[in-house]
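The data layer described in this paper is built around a simple, fixed record for each protein. Because each token names a local backbone shape, the row as a whole describes the fold. We quote a single record here, exactly as it is kept in our systems:

***
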Amino acid sequence: MKVIITVLTMLFFLSGCGALRARVKARNRMEVARHAYVECLESKDDPSECQRLRRIFEIEIETYKALRKRPGAEVVIKKQKVR
């Protein structure tokens, strides 16, 4: 009986590791997108040139927020043409 409880406890904790890894990866992608967008804004005279990077940053924010709300969920983003 102790073995079964130990195995179930280990499986419970290990199942959360994948979700945590996904959140960390999403957060890192969001930070990279933010950095690229801010860098573009600082280097361009016309902010409209950075709209594509802004949209990518917004998508990464949506992905990160979705993973925070539902840790085990897959995030599906509809394909949109980025202008």
Summary: Residues 2-43 form the longest helix (42 residues).
